[in-house]
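Homework help thread (please don't just give me the answer)

Our assignment gives two proteins as sequence + structure token strings and asks us to describe the second one. The first is just a warm-up. Here they are:
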Amino acid sequence: MIRTIGLTGGIASGKTTISELFRTLNVRVIDADVIARDVVKRGRKPYEKIVQSFGNNILLDNGEIDRQKLGKIIFAQKEKRELLNQIVHPAVRKQMLEERDRYLKEGHQLVVLDIPLLFEGDLTHLVDKTIVVYVRRDVQFERLVTRNQLSTDDAEQRIASQMPLEEKVKLADATIDNNGTVEESCEQLKTILRKWRIFT
């Protein structure tokens, strides 16, 4: 029986859109990015480790972490990115699993774990099936520049820091081609869920 689905993709590939489609089907979605923002707030253990590792110059005036400053550092330097992942990922994984187990105990038939680094982090053992949200690189680039107001170089750096979407497609149990309309993506999702006998 399929109880958990791992949803992944690349930056600006449209995972949020697919997550919302799952929610319209009354499926609980646990978002790793949302949890990652939560675990690095002041007072949490990862926050202290990040400040020790990266210095006070990554902080805003209110003492919270300046995500843009930190992002510029980690997307430019692989070793810094790996260091941050070592600090943040265990805390994120722990909270995700706690939420997943709670939803399943409450009687929800299906839980989606929205994890950008599902394959890179070797986390497929946490789920029963995997879905990749795919877009062409030119579409991904354009969406990222527009959405995050990034320079061309910054956008290229961020896309290059992740496993290519074509590679993720090869590893996934199913793929949603998100180059078209939301309605088209919704139909693809429903087809996948019917095939897996989750919804009829």
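The one we have to describe:
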Amino acid sequence: MVRVLRWGISLALLLGICVVAQAQETYLDEYIVHVKPEKFSAFEAGIKKMVAANKGGQGDTWVTLVPLYGDDNTVRLVSTRSSFADIDNASKTFDAAMEKAIGKGGVEKFFDDYRTSVTEERGLLLRRRPDLSANMPTDPAAQSKIVGATRFVRIIRIVVRIGMGPRFEDLAKQVKAAEEKTSPNIHSWISQSVAGDRATVYYVAELQPSLAGFDNSPSLPQMMGSDAYTELLKKASEFIQTEEITVERFVPSLSNPPADTVSVAPDYWNPKPAAPKPTAKPAAKAPAKTTP
């Protein structure tokens, strides 16, 4: 779905850089949009229409996140892809589902209306890095099931200096070892930019079933020991340029997740439409008084 909405990255560009990836790897195909505050209701209604069309037509799948702490009115729609070819196939699947639901003319009108509600949009393609991630299954279905139990994600965008990627990855593997030794329930998944950002930008996503999970998760000094943690910070300061942190939450009503994700919590991922509010009955008028 996100592949269709974006017009910032062409398929030719994606195919041109496929040498950095392997066929067995998975990708996060993200569409990030800034919505006009006064148009958010219209945007939300449009995405819900898109969800219904894709569900009915067995179209593309995605999950939607909005920031709890971060840029307001920013929406992130994320699909998992198995390959570059899968991006193209998903685009065709999305098109077919939308046209089946509302017709070709309806699709054109949908996107015309949609564009009036956004101010900025960008595509971002990330390669998942299980080798750097704590407790990330290599099987996409198993990954989807973990996402199904997640409600909040803390995302750390780390910009590494050019040429320093290997040094960052060495430290990331040390953190991975400490986290996996501490708990199998720590899910700290790392992805690396393939297109739409610098190649030496890494995204760390910490998945939690609740906000309280961030409180209950042990800190790095606790997991690594104070001396090892101090040494890690010293090395990191030499090659990490910037870090940005957001906390985001899933929005099921704007998502069309894969079946493996939905199966974990069907009631959460398939929310029932809100019942219409009952119309208030007009107050009964008191009988008119008659003058004796």
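TA reply:
I won't write it for you, but here's a hint about the kind of observation we're looking for: The CA atoms of residues 89 and 108 lie 20 Å apart.
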